[in-house]
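User: For documentation purposes, I need each entry recorded in a consistent format: the amino acid sequence on its own, followed directly by the corresponding structure tokens. There are two entries in this batch. Please keep commentary to a minimum and don't merge the entries.

Assistant: Recorded as requested. Entry 1:
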Amino acid sequence: MSMIRDLRAVVRPSRVSLRKDGAPYDATRSPATSSAVVDCAVYRDGRRIETETPLTPHEAVRLARRDGGFVWIGLHEPTEAEFSGIAGEFGLHPLAVEDAVQAHQRPKLERYDDSLFTVFKTIHYVEHDQFDANSEVVETGEVMCFTGRDFFITVRHGGQGSLRALRHRLQDDPELLSKGPSAVLHAIADHVVDGYIAVADAVQDDIDEVETEVFSPGRKGAPRGSDAGRIYQLKREVLEFKRAVSPLLRPMQLLSERPMRLIDPDIQKYFRDVADHLARVQEQVLGFDELLNSILQANLAQASVAQNEDMRKITSWAAIIAVPTMVCGVYGMNFDHMPELHWRYGYPVIMGITVVICLGIHRTLKRNGWL
């Protein structure tokens, strides 16, 4: 299979690559060490150069410059002291280094001398059995990428967005990996955007569920307007999603349209595919926001209509009760000379008239839909 056909396949599940001794690569950070370096390797002609012991970043740089190829270093939440040595080794710009260490950056693409600095926000869907007003829908992380002629550095923040499986899949495709750091950058961008698509589908299911429940007539045990909290929570999560997607459109367009020395021409055209998928996700996210606004307004309108119906019922019963109240009030006055006060049939006649009037009012109100 050619490199072109394999570009999209690289982010799909595949077998884990093995060392020559048959052991799988371990790209996870060891709990026993405090080092921020998750994995450090040199790739030449698309293949990982095997060493007897794990390489340090300094050793990897020397090996890559001696034998050719490029270095791929992966870090997870490094401190300033841990990253300063690597930054000095590759001549990374201090502003980019500061952003990579501190994190909490919006997606962007910046060029510093002979390197590109790219920020991606990763999105992870949080599984939940039942969605309520306090449920978390998405978790965000960050992946910062430094792309140079002979190096590629990833700095990851957050518990999600591991690149371990992606590195394995790239190592299974030497033809693609031989294109250098730009191929890794494309694979990460494609991997992140494919994650957006999966999360968008899951969020769509949550929105459909809330929408169905809002418009379901006569739900038992559900107070009117109780869905407003869930809708608002979904809007907050969609806003977090939009903050990850929208700013990334411009960097992807630049990577796909503007010629860059650090991006291989054979790889650059495939950033268009990533930008197209990203635009589709953005349309979905914007649609989510508008749909949730409509659902929230409909929910509040339903609550208002229900309150009006309750008030009409209360008013109707108050009108019915007002009749016997008025009669009892009149005949409760302490006057000696009142009509029918000493008449033998006065009580049953007054009670009958009161009941007839109440029944007439009840029938009229029910006919008009007030009861």
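Entry 2:
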Amino acid sequence: MKSPIAMQNSAVSRNAIALIATVAAGAAVYWLRDILTPLAMAIFLLIMIDGVKRSVSARTPLNDRMAGIAALTLVVLAFFASIAIIVNGAAGFFGEASGVSQNIGPRIDQIIRDVYGLVRLDNPPTAQDLINGIDVRGYLTSMAFQAQGIASGAFFVLVYLGFLLASQIGFQRKIVAMFPLKAQRDEAVAVFKRVRGGVEGYIWVQTVTGAMICVVAWILMRAVGLQNAEFWTFVIFIVGFIPVLGGAVAGLAPPLFALVQFPSYWPALILLIGLQAILFIVGNLIQPRMQGDNQNIDPVVVLLALAFWGKLWGVVGMFLSTPLAVMAMAILAEFQGSRWMAVLLSGDGEPYADEGKQRRKTASKAKAPDPVETEA
């Protein structure tokens, strides 16, 4: 019988402490989610503001101070405008004027009858029969609390963002005090730039590809006459930042509501085929090419991060799951003991894409034949 691998006591103790610390950190993140969720969103907005500031400063004659004010104004206004559009758009869509609330019951009854007739079954149930066992009041109460939580959460995000912006004044002095040696300080700054570059690259790719999807989706929805096409277009753009689930919502929600609005099934079928086609093209052809080195994350890690942070922080966790995974990979790759975890998180085994490209370039040069020897 083969004897088990022997490990030194120090290694066993170190691994046990790391495991306990990981479990404790996960529990703390879950218990403190009401505090950490707006803080994480504020940090995300801070990175966005910094990226917009550098872009404005590079493309306009504004100095750093004015570019920072312009970037802050743009991001904050966009943040609150997004919340206002979703809340007001949802209220208007489900209001009495839209007709959806009156048609949803009879339309579901008709769909059930058509399905039963297609498979040749008798006694189809009604929509009322299906929802009798559902606590509708409880769901409505939960939705009301979630809406209230969004409003209060937005306020705390703004408060955190203000304090983060104020703390940036002494950030450079803190870096110097933490890393007195220039080599260590340069390495810390390089890690920060990698994290910032990964998050900004993710935002850029999702924004551009989301805009492409929204243009086609808006044209399709206007062509079939779907109500509140602009509202659905904005929803598709926002949910595009949530991996996996965002594509499912974007491709299925408008066709489902087209079933309620129209007496015919053709508008819903057109929307379903058109949206699935554009999502497939963008997700499999355009987005991978644009991601390049900005999001070198394994797809399985993206899915696990979505499930993990969604379980801990809900919708906000789903929204931030990929940026948090990018941050984790960049930080873990800096330490020798945790670099193997960064390798597992990466898509091609190279946590730092620039190092991977340089290594592959060097390898290709080494394999290339010498032109002098080839001529000889």
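Summary note for entry 2:
The radius of gyration is 26 Å.
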